[in-house]
Amino acid sequence: MNDPAPDTTSPSGAWDPAACAPYLAPPTAADHKYSRGVLGLRTGSPAYPGAAVLGAEAAWRTGAGLVQFVPPVGGTAPLFGMPSPAATVLAARPETVVSRSPDRVDAWLVGSGTDPEARPKAETDELAELLTQRRPVIIDAGALDLCLLRRDERFRVAPVAITPHAGEFARLWRALGGSRPTDDAGSLGSAEATAQLAKRLDVTVLLKGSVTTIASPSGDIVTVGPATPWLATAGTGDVLAGIVGTLAARHAGLVRRGGLVGPAGTDWPDWPAGQIGLADRAPVLAELCATAVLLHDIAARIASGDSGGSAGAASSILGRPITALDVARSIPAAVERLLGP
Ligand SMILES: NC(=O)C1=CN([C@@H]2O[C@H](COP(=O)(O)OP(=O)(O)OC[C@H]3O[C@@H](n4cnc5c(N)ncnc54)[C@H](OP(=O)(O)O)[C@@H]3O)[C@@H](O)[C@H]2O)[C@@H](O)CC1
Ligand SMILES: Nc1ncnc2c1ncn2[C@@H]1O[C@H](COP(=O)(O)OP(=O)(O)O)[C@@H](O)[C@H]1O
Question: Where is (6S)-NADPHX bound in this sequence (predicted)?
Fold first, then answer.
């Protein structure tokens, strides 16, 4: 990959709170748990069971119909006498169903709270397999290396969004042969670099930061922020990933169709093969990501008691310290605020 030119372009646009509403629409009388979106989680590890709890908490609070947790394959036993990720998730959210091979999953969230160095081959193989299927896959933290598989056509079947922070973004950039950025995506013109990465790997890139940049493979860029700086605390990225995964599960059909409505309301399997390219599908995923980032910021502001700041406001810092779990627990109030009159 060539180094990006300095970023002289303006982003395609900042995300409008009003645009979130369709993605957060309340359930109807015709809904049931399966129609509201089933999220499959492959998150957490013996070293980081807490990250799996944060993602599951966020998923339920965002309004998932069902969250299914798949325990990591093989690997080391829990450390320090800690419970396993599955036991930790169940203790916090007994609504969660734990299963080795869940059916009816609409979208997957993988990688939060995992370490690629400690990942057994069997786990890597199962994660890679998800990229060969049509369900949306959200790739976070310790699974981000798997998006490099997208260089191979076989792994380009699933619509994919990745959620790196600046350090993780720099690692991916270097893995693709770029020499810049070093560890500071902000210094390189992140919009340009994010768009390049999105295009190269045919993924939607959600580059986290005070201002979060979201790029589609098509080149569209959306920015959200600045978010409240109280979000700069451990685990808030795991919460964001849970929100993104849940919205992707809720709108999995729309993601696969690229936002297009099929003939007589048909879904993807009824569409002629090859009619819709991956790049066509990506902007919907970007809009879901932007909605998730805005919801996350509003939840953080509610949790921190920041009644004066609105999402995206670059005001002086208002409010009080928060934890990642506080943010997750404030998601329902944030949904209500975004849907409010
Ligand atoms: N409770 C739990 O279970 C929790 C579990 N968690 C899990 O921990 C795992 C490891 O994740 P991780 O992010 O802590 O470590 P890693 O991937 O090595 O990246 C850090 C390196 O990147 C660099 N860096 C540059 N810019 C940066 C930025 N904006 N934000 C952050 N870093 C930035 C930074 O360099 P520096 O700036 O310090 O020079 C540093 O060298 C992962 O699976 C995650 O899910 C956490 O979510 C916490 C709660
Ligand atoms: N200074 C900041 N101002 C606003 N939001 C921030 C700031 N720093 C980080 N964030 C947000 O906090 C979250 C941190 O995610 P991440 O770096 O993955 O942390 P973790 O791995 O501990 O969950 C992201 O949503 C990011 O956009």
Answer: 51, 113, 165, 238
Could you identify the atom of ligand 1 that is nearest to the CA of residue 112? Answer: 45
pLDDT in tens, 272-293: 344 444 344 448 999 999 999 9
Query: 145 lies in a domain?
Result: yes
The answer to whether 291 and 23 are in contact (CB under 8 A) is yes
Q: What number is the ipTM of this complex?
A: 0.98
Residues lining ligand 2, Cβ inside 6 A: 165, 208-210, 212, 227, 229, 231-232, 234-238, 240, 296
Output the six-digit token pair for 84: 């396993």
Paired tokens of 42: 């492959």
Residue 79 · residue 44 · CB < 8 Å: no
Model confidence pLDDT, tens digit, residues 312-325:
665 567 899 999 99
Number of structural domains in the chain:
1
Q: What is d(CA 314, CA 166) in angstroms, rounded to the nearest whole number?
A: 20
Question: Which residue's CA is the closest to the ligand 1 atom numbered 24?
Answer: 167
Establish if 298 belongs to a structural domain: yes
Q: Quote the ligand 2 centre to 230 CA distance (angstroms).
A: 9
Is 331 contained in some domain?
yes
Binding-site residue numbers for AMP are 208-212, 237
Give CA–CA dist 311/299, Å, rounded.
Answer: 9
